[in-house]
Design a protein that fits this description.
With about 160 residues, this protein is mainly alpha-helical. It folds into two domains: about 10-90, Arc Repressor Mutant, subunit A; about 95-160. It has six helices and three strands; from the N terminus they run H-H-E-H-H-E-E-H-H. It has helices spanning about 10-25, 30-40, 50-55, 60-70, 95-125, 130-160; strands at about 45, 75-80, 85-90. Helix 3 crosses helix 4 and helix 5 runs antiparallel to helix 6 (about 130-160). The longest helix is centred in the C-terminal third of the chain and has 31 residues, at about 130-160. The protein is elongated and about 70 Å long. The chain starts with 9 loop residues before the first helix and ends with a helix.
Length: about 160
């Protein structure tokens, strides 16, 4: 059975645009914003086929987008009685969205940065003393940023009661 392509209403278009812009600001793909925006404004849970048809996106784009949104806990699969497919809804609690993004996207990057810093430090002995001082001061700055970032995330998560 073919999925009929529904047109997107003006309201849906404007809401989707809000989330596309937000996604792009934080470095996510346009399709992530489109999928989240559509699910956010949808009255009922939607299947991947419905999402693909309404947004006119490919299976790969929809699948990857939903996978990433689920990792952020921005969307969740829900049971729809009598349906065999997975259906999805958007998380509409701001605090849960932010917590998911920080925990799944930002914190791992900061942890990788800490690992990279530990790899960098021993390399300073392989350069001239002047260069080692310069590089060392820059590495220390990155280390402070990394630690401050983790502290900030911890405070934000506490502030939003997560």
């Amino acid at each position: 059975m073919a999925i009929q392509t529904e047109t997107i209403t003006e309201v849906e278009t404007e809401v989707i645009d809000i989330f596309v812009r937000a996604a792009q600001v934080i470095g996510l793909a346009k399709s992530i914003g489109e999928i989240y925006g559509l699910l956010f404004i949808a009255e009922e849970p939607m299947s991947m086929d419905q999402i693909m048809a309404k947004l006119r996106i490919s299976l790969g784009t929809a699948s990857q987008g939903l996978k990433q949104l689920r990792a952020f806990k921005a969307v969740k699969a829900v049971y729809v009685p009598g349906k065999r497919k997975d259906y999805f809804t958007a998380e509409s609690e701001f605090r849960k969205l932010m917590a998911g993004f920080f925990k799944e996207e930002v914190t791992p990057q900061l942890e990788i940065t800490a690992e990279r810093i530990e790899v960098l430090k021993p390399l300073l002995k392989n350069v001239s003393p002047d260069r080692a001082r310069h590089y060392g001061s820059r590495i220390e700055k990155i280390e402070r940023w990394q630690k401050n970032g983790l502290n900030l995330i911890d405070k934000v998560l506490k502030f939003i009661n997560f």
